[in-house]
């Protein structure tokens, strides 16, 4: 039996309607942090679902559709760079996951959140699960929805701003990315609070 499914199924004995929530994009210099929540069908088992970081992009795209087809409900929420700057990335991630849960259209009995913190004032029982995307099928499924959604967003942004080569580094703080920012300047999709190590880049005009 799939161990990720077994983890969730043990919890379903007390909380039948189980929701997993996760985020993608905490580390990049730009773009939103993308948060997802999903309630899978109780009998759905898929051995290919795992932590999104351990799965190839091509496989994640296929699993994205499989997860949606086998979800009782799902939601994906983007938290903007401006809000990240305002409340910090941790709070933006927790806020985004809470919004995703509230946007499901159904009320889960429990929400499993990846990590060691949970959002405040959740509408139902909520538990944090350290390394949840490697232990819970529902959290792993949410991680795939979040990762694919963010990658698609960044691909669209890359078409609009090809000079930053966003598809290559996905917004992460690589040496080349910093060089491109120094050359082309800061745009509105950048998280200005993330430039504490390179504050001089914030002064360059677009």
Could you please describe the fold and organization of this structure?
The chain has 206 residues and is α/β, with parallel strands linked by helices. The chain has two domains: 3-159, Ribonuclease H-like superfamily/Ribonuclease H (Nucleotidyltransferase, domain 5, 2-Layer Sandwich), CATH 3.30.420.10; 162-203, no CATH class. It is 40% helix and 17% strand. The chain is built from seven helices and five strands. It has a five-stranded mixed sheet, with helices on both faces. Strand 1 (18-24) and strand 2 form a beta hairpin. Helix 2 (57-69) packs across helix 5 (137-160) and helix 3 packs across helix 4. It is globular and about 55 Å long. The N and C termini lie far apart (55 Å). The model has no long low-confidence stretch (mean pLDDT 95).
Task: Spell out the key features of this protein.
206 residues, alpha/beta, Nucleotidyltransferase, domain 5, 2 domains, five-stranded mixed beta sheet, 7 helices
Write a concise synopsis of the structure shown.
With 206 residues, this protein is an alpha/beta fold. It has seven helices and five strands; from the N terminus they run αββαβααββααα.
Distance between the termini: 55 Å
Helicity, as a percent range: 25-40%
User: Per the principal axes of the C-alpha atoms, what is the gross shape?
Assistant: globular
In spatial order, strands of the major sheet run: 3-2-1-4-5
**SS-based class:** alpha/beta
Largest sheet: 5 strands, mixed
CATH architectural category of the largest domain: 2-Layer Sandwich
What is the CATH class designation of the largest domain? Alpha Beta
- What is the gyration radius calculated from CA atoms? 18 Å
CATH level 3 topology of the largest domain: Nucleotidyltransferase, domain 5
Write out the CATH superfamily name of the largest domain: Ribonuclease H-like superfamily/Ribonuclease H
One letter per element, helices H and strands E, the order comes to HEEHEHHEEHHH
Number of helices: 7
Q: How many E-type strands?
A: 5
Quick check: average pLDDT? Answer: 95
Count of structural domains: 2
Low-confidence stretches: none
Percent of residues in beta strands = 15-25%
